[in-house]
Each structure stands twice: as structure tokens, then as C-alpha cells.
Amino acid sequence: MASRCELLLICVFSLFFALAHSKTLKRDVKALNEIKASLGWRVVYSWVGDDPCGDGDLPPWSGVTCSTQGDYRVVTELEVYAVSIVGPFPIAVTNLLDLTRLDLHNNKLTGPIPPQIGRLKRLKVLNLRWNKLQDVIPPEIGELKRLTHLYLSFNSFKGEIPKELAALPELRYLYLQENRLIGRIPAELGTLQNLRHLDVGNNHLVGTIRELIRFDGSFPALRNLYLNNNYLSGGIPAQLSNLTNLEIVYLSYNKFIGNIPFAIAHIPKLTYLYLDHNQFTGRIPDAFYKHPFLKEMYIEGNMFKSGVNPIGTHKVLEVSDADFAV
């Protein structure tokens, strides 16, 4: 029995020894050193040594996570955020082919995202929000089939939302707000079976909700829909109530018209409904005020009829327990 325990210990120590002495893939070392050369002193001061995954007594570079594959270490995560990086998107990043997470948010990156971003086939999280990135959103992002989180908000992207984003079967969170995007929101996004959060607010988008949900079974998992501060028009179709997982619907500051369909009050988990600053007319169906989860409705800046409570000129309607009384 003792010999078997000794053999097990030898195997364990051999494994740790191998991990400790694995070499980092030359491709990744070269890429990180190119990135190091392009990012400036704010990052370089904490990136010490020749090996980004650590070398001897030196730890891995700050924000760099590595894992072992066979006899080599590879870079799987790069998180360098809120350090005021200035300059174009570091194209050498696209040579880190084993990346699962790329987080460069809250910097001062400029220029376009290079089309080579489509090479990062293992990427799950891409976070580039709060930069100064420009040009169009590259359709090559649609090649990142494992992507679950895409954060491109608070930049200066222009052009249309690429319909290629609908080719991301695992996508759960899509943040595109606060850019300069134009055109219509691709209805193809509604085919994303796992999408929970869609935020395209504060852009220059046009079109209607009816167009957005025109496919049968659109947005089956969607919880949060942010369409605010655009140039969207038309009415709210009753078919929106088919999105039964909706919790937040944010339609403020658009050009929507017409009555609020009674069916919307029967979205089971609806919690926040923002209708303010549009051109809605008619009355708010009483069913909204008996909804078991609805906490807030914002209706100011419309043309709702007055005279029947609860209707009209309320700036913010906060639904309380009393409103649920039959």
C-alpha cells in the first residue's frame, strides 16, 4: 500500500513540476510583447520579464491569465481596463488564438476593431465599452461562435448593426448603446435563443417594433429590451406580449404612436415599463395597475387622455401595493 501512495505522490509532484516549467507558446509571447510595446507606460510598468505567463520567480503579467495545454502555456484571458490606454486597437491581440476573455474597457482606444477579431474562435467575453472606437462594427464578430457577452457600448461606432451578430448561438448579453448606429435593428437577432439582454439605446436607429419581432418565436429568452433614445416609430404591437420573459421594456424618447395594447399588461414578469416622451394616445389599461410584478411606469411626455384614473399627466407612476387592490 505504501508503494502505491508513494507512486501517487511522485505522479502529483511530477505534474506540478511540469506545470511550473512549461514554456509559454512563442506565438503568445510575441503577441503580448507587441501589445506591450504599443500600450505605453501605464501598463508596461507592471509587465515585468520576458514571459507574460511568468518566468521563474516572476509572476504573470498583470491582467494576463494563462493555462497549460500539453507542454505549453497559452494566454486565455487579457484584462487591461481603466488604465487610460491611448491609441488604436492593438491588432496583435488577434494572434492570441486561445483567448476566452478580452477586456479592454474604459480606456481611450481609437480607430476600428480590426476584421481579424474573427480569428478568436474561443472568445466568450468581448468587452470594449467606454473607449473611443470608431468605424463600423465588423461583421467578423459573427464568427465568434462561443461568444456569450458582447459589450461595445459608449464608443463612436457608426453604420448599421451587422446582421451577422445573429450567428452567435451562445450570445446572452448584447450592449450597443451610446454609439452612432443607424438603420434598422436586424430582426435576425430575434432568432438568438439565449439572448437575455438587448440594449441599443442612444443611437440613431429607425424602424418599428413590429419589424423587429416579425419572426415567429422571436427573442424567446429576452428579459431586458432597451430601445430608448432613437427614432423608432409606429405602435406597440400586441405581439410584443409573446415575449413572455420580458422584465424591462424601455421605449422612452422615440416617435412611437397609438394606444398601449391591453395584451402588454399580461407579460407575466414585467417589472419596469418606460413609455415616456413619445406620442402615445388613448388610456392606460387598468390591467397594468393590477399586475403582480410591475413596479414603475413612466408615461410623461405623451398624449394620453385624462379623466379616468389612472391616466394622464402623472410624470412618474409608481405602482404601490394599494394599486393592486381589486
Automatic annotation (TrEMBL):
<dbReference type="GO" id="GO:0016301">
    <property type="term" value="F:kinase activity"/>
</dbReference>
<keyword id="KW-0325">Glycoprotein</keyword>
<keyword id="KW-0675">Receptor</keyword>
<feature type="domain" description="Disease resistance R13L4/SHOC-2-like LRR">
    <location>
        <begin position="93"/>
        <end position="201"/>
    </location>
</feature>
<keyword id="KW-0808">Transferase</keyword>
<feature type="signal peptide">
    <location>
        <begin position="1"/>
        <end position="22"/>
    </location>
</feature>
<dbReference type="Pfam" id="PF08263">
    <property type="entry name" value="LRRNT_2"/>
</dbReference>
<keyword id="KW-0732">Signal</keyword>
<dbReference type="InterPro" id="IPR003591">
    <property type="entry name" value="Leu-rich_rpt_typical-subtyp"/>
</dbReference>
<dbReference type="InterPro" id="IPR032675">
    <property type="entry name" value="LRR_dom_sf"/>
</dbReference>
<dbReference type="InterPro" id="IPR013210">
    <property type="entry name" value="LRR_N_plant-typ"/>
</dbReference>
<dbReference type="GO" id="GO:0016020">
    <property type="term" value="C:membrane"/>
</dbReference>
<feature type="domain" description="Leucine-rich repeat-containing N-terminal plant-type">
    <location>
        <begin position="26"/>
        <end position="67"/>
    </location>
</feature>
<dbReference type="Pfam" id="PF13855">
    <property type="entry name" value="LRR_8"/>
</dbReference>
<keyword id="KW-0677">Repeat</keyword>
<keyword id="KW-0812">Transmembrane</keyword>
<protein>
    <submittedName>
        <fullName>Leucine-rich repeat receptor protein kinase MSP1</fullName>
    </submittedName>
</protein>
<keyword id="KW-0472">Membrane</keyword>
<dbReference type="InterPro" id="IPR050994">
    <property type="entry name" value="At_inactive_RLKs"/>
</dbReference>
<comment type="similarity">
    <text>Belongs to the RLP family.</text>
</comment>
<keyword id="KW-0433">Leucine-rich repeat</keyword>
<keyword id="KW-1133">Transmembrane helix</keyword>
<dbReference type="Pfam" id="PF23598">
    <property type="entry name" value="LRR_14"/>
</dbReference>
<dbReference type="InterPro" id="IPR001611">
    <property type="entry name" value="Leu-rich_rpt"/>
</dbReference>
<keyword id="KW-0418">Kinase</keyword>
<dbReference type="InterPro" id="IPR055414">
    <property type="entry name" value="LRR_R13L4/SHOC2-like"/>
</dbReference>
